[in-house]
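TICKET: design request
STATUS: open
ATTACHED STRUCTURE:
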């Protein structure tokens, strides 16, 4: 009965429990994954894991994707061997997700891109090398078997391990570069969230380093050293990085309580010396008992079950504690209540339970200590065995070499013995001859030395004579050249001084003449501007008597806005005049102010006449009479403004309910249009990747990516505008509700609606243009024009949104930042479009080598005619564009009913 209760505890969790653990381990909280949640996921294959993960929004939340990578890495290492094979079907999705997060240059997005590349590399390595388990734990014999005794296989396997370790190091460096190492980041939840996956990286890296060292020694024993120079260089680079990263990691407080990180030797192994293999010590990563792996805990459970079978009364109590922790207990139904059994009291039972529990804990700690000690001893013995094997091989080699040398010396000794016997026979007869020869040789050597000394002395004297002669010749030539250069430089300096003096005098004269011309040009420009202003005003006055003007009408609101703009421009004119009188340099600002005022006054005259056509005759006569009897322009404008205020209608043309709802509908429609445009761009990007290749695919991806950035920026702008409008309404301004506020400020509301419509329309048109460009049917210029139009529409939305906001409003600052983002994104679309156009279009080379003089002259005339035609067409199109914009501004000002505050917003936007 006891075993019946305990048996389910030793089994793996069910699929539903694993799904719950997955959701608890992979979430959006920036904290490290809990070990118990990750441990529960390991007991099943990959099907349940991917079924739960595929429902998570990994592409929209970087923290969520980061924790997914951590859990998936642990599952690949410690899970079932089929996990790697079952997960390969998701390789394409992981690659796409890595490219998507790679567009971010910092934060978790960049780290997710690097981690996903590492996981893909890990799966590909284990699929290609199925002998390697997920945790990379292999013996030397298994490592030899993985290469199948083929040096080519070992060579390729080493390259793949280098690539594998490179991905591990990139993630290591990415995490450290994203943290501020000057602070105690390892004790914060956010820092631990980034550091937690590095435990898996440390485990993988230690094995990969150990295997690459052993494989490189094996390759150096089979191949020439020059062939493996690239392998050695790459190993040296990775050794330095791994050593530094292990050292930095071991100093972090977070790792000190979870893992014991090995330290690499001071210098890398010398692969050119075979005996250096015995000096290599495999790095061992030690995980303390409290952070032991699931396999260790499962083994402890099996040991305790064996204790239950041997009738030791302690283990059921320990399982009872685990059972109580998981499911709770009840004194009435507890099958392990020993209060009334075997005649023992409850206090004795409790003391016995506590005593045995402490003993079990002590045994577990001792078992873990034995395990660690045995691991260290095995590692030391394994290193000693490798050292002895290498020494034995070296001694065997020396023994064979000594045997060969001994045979060679024995044969050489026999030859020398025979030569000695022959020599002794001849030695006796040659002794006298040698004695005489030695005396003659000594005399000859003395004479030869004397002769050699005389010859050497004579040669030295000849060389010294030639050297002195050459030096004298060179010195004379150098002196002549120096004298010539000195005379030439003196003449040039004198000529330069005279020329400089002439240039200074001429420059002074030109400056005086230019100053006079500049003063005259400024005055002439100012007179021309004043005359042009008079003509503009006279032209506006002449329109009042034009019969065709009688049918023109205007609103009092628009007339008031024109009057206010004229008054503001007069203030600007006075400031420009004062600046010009002060230093005579601000003529350009004065000319612009005069011209602008003339246009505004002329527009005010025309709009005043048009407004008078819409009011009763008595009010119209009063307006004209006020204008006639005003003494100055400012007084006349003030009078017209006052009359326009009187003529403003007091009622509302829209129903209150409709206007309030219309704002929400238009803002929602704009948001929907932007979302739809972004979705269409994403769909176009996928189609382009499936169909296009080469330069065209690269250009389309760059253009669509910039369009996507623009859509995101517009989306942020619309959200910021809605938040700012909510703040404006919440601030009160005398309105009891949102709809009443919109109705009370109808002109501002209508301007806001118009701006929102323009943004949604611009987004839709830009997507259509981009679709045609990607298909090769559209024009790049049309896409650039659409981008500029969107920028103008968003500027209109910004102006309409912030016109009633307080300058210290936080959402107003957010709106301005969003507006800057739209401007930058628009510039990105234009830049990518121009770049793509220049990359796609082919530039014809101009080769005129085979043309005659007459043909060249003919083509030159044709080219001039074409230039003139294009310039004329360009001028007409610019004039047409100006008229269209003018008409657009008129319709936006009159039909939408913008008021004074809207006019101020337009001026601020300009």
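STATUS: resolved
RESOLUTION: sequence designed for all positions
ATTACHED SEQUENCE:
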């Amino acid at each position: 009965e006891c075993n019946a209760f305990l048996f389910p505890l030793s089994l793996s969790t069910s699929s539903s429990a694993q799904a719950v653990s997955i959701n608890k381990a992979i979430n959006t909280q920036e904290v490290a994954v809990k070990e118990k949640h990750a441990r529960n996921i390991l007991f099943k294959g990959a099907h349940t894991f991917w079924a739960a993960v595929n429902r998570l929004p990994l592409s929209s939340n970087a923290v969520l994707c980061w924790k997914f990578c951590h859990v998936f890495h642990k599952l690949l290492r410690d899970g079932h061997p089929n996990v790697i094979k079952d997960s390969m079907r998701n390789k394409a999705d992981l690659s796409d997700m890595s490219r998507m997060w790679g567009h971010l240059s910092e934060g978790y997005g960049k780290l997710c891109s690097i981690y996903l590349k590492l996981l893909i590399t890990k799966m590909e390595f284990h699929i290609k090398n199925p002998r390697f388990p997920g945790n990379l734990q292999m013996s030397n014999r298994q490592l030899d078997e993985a290469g199948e005794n083929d040096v080519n296989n070992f060579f390729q396997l080493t390259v793949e391990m280098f690539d594998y370790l490179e991905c591990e190091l990139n993630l290591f460096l990415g995490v450290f570069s994203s943290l501020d190492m000057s602070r105690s980041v390892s004790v914060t939840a956010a820092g631990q969230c980034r550091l937690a996956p590095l435990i898996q990286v440390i485990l993988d890296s230690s094995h990969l380093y150990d295997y690459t060292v052993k494989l490189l020694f094996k390759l150096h024993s089979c191949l020439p050293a020059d062939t493996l120079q690239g392998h050695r260089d790459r190993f040296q680079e990775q050794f330095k990085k791994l050593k530094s990263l292990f050292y930095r990691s071991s100093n972090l407080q977070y790792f000190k309580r979870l893992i014991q990180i090995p330290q690499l030797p001071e210098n890398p192994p010398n692969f050119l010396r075979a005996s250096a293999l015995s000096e290599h010590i495999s790095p061992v990563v030690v995980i303390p008992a409290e952070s032991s792996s699931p396999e260790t805990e499962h083994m402890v459970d099996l040991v305790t079950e064996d204790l239950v079978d041997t009738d030791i009364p302690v283990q059921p109590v320990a399982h009872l504690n685990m059972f109580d922790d998981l499911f709770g207990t009840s004194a009435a139904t507890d099958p392990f209540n020993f209060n009334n059994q075997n005649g023992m009291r409850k206090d004795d039972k409790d003391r016995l339970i506590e005593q045995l529990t402490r003993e079990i804990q002590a045994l577990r700690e001792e078992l873990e200590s034995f395990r660690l000690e045995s691991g260290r001893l095995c590692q030391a013995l394994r290193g000693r065995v490798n050292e002895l094997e290498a020494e034995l091989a070296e001694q065997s080699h020396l023994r064979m070499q000594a045997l060969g040398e001994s045979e060679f010396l024995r044969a050489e000794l026999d030859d020398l013995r025979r030569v000695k016997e022959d020599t002794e026979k001849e030695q006796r007869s040659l002794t006298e001859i040698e004695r005489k020869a030695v005396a003659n040789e000594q005399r000859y050597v003395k004479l030869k030395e004397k002769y050699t000394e005389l010859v050497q002395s004579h040669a030295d004297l000849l060389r010294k004579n030639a050297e002195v002669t050459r030096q004298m010749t060179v010195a004379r030539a150098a002196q002549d050249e120096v004298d010539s250069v000195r005379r030439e430089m003196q003449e040039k300096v004198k000529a330069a001084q005279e020329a400089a003096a002439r240039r200074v005098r001429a420059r002074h004269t030109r400056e005086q003449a230019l100053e006079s011309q500049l003063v005259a040009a400024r005055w002439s420009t100012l007179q021309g501007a004043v005359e042009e202003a008079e003509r503009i005003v006279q032209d506006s006055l002449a329109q009042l008597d034009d019969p065709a003007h009688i049918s023109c009408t205007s609103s009092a609101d628009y007339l008031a806005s024109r009057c206010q703009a004229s008054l503001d421009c007069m203030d600007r004119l006075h400031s420009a005049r004062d600046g010009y009188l002060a230093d005579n340099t601000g003529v350009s600002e004065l000319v612009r102010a005069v011209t602008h005022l003339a246009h505004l006054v002329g527009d005010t005259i025309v709009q005043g006449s048009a407004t008078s056509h819409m009011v009763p005759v008595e009010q119209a006569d009063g307006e004209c009479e006020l204008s006639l009897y005003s003494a100055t322009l400012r007084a006349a404008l003030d009078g017209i403004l006052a009359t326009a205020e009187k003529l403003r209608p007091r009622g509302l043309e829209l129903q209150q309910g409709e206007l309030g709802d219309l704002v929400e509908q238009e803002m929602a429609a704009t948001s929907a249009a932007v979302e739809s445009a972004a979705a269409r761009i994403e769909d176009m990007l996928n189609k382009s990747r499936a169909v296009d290749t080469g330069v065209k695919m690269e250009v389309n991806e760059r253009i669509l990516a910039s369009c996507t950035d623009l859509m995101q920026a517009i989306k942020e702008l619309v959200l910021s505008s809605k938040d700012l409008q909510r703040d404006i309404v919440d601030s009160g301004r005398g309105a009891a509700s949102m709809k009443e506020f919109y109705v009370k400020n109808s002109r501002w509301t209508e301007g806001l609606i118009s701006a929102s419509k323009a943004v949604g329309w611009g987004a839709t048109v830009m997507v259509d243009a981009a679709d045609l460009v990607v298909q090769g049917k559209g024009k790049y210029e049309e896409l650039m024009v659409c981008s500029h139009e969107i920028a103008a529409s968003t500027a209109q939305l910004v102006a309409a949104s912030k016109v009633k906001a307080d300058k210290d409003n936080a959402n107003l600052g957010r709106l301005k930042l969003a507006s800057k983002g739209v401007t930058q994104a628009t510039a990105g679309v234009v830049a990518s479009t121009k770049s793509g156009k220049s990359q796609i279009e082919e530039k014809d080379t101009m080769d005129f080598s085979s043309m005659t003089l007459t043909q060249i002259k003919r083509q030159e005339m044709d080219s001039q005619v074409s230039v003139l035609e294009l310039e004329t067409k360009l001028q007409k199109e610019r004039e047409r564009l100006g008229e269209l914009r003018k008409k657009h501004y008129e319709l936006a000002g009159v039909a939408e009913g913008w008021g004074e505050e809207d006019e101020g917003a337009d001026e601020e936007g300009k």
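CLOSING REMARK: The mean pLDDT is 75. DSSP finds 29 helices and no strands in the chain.
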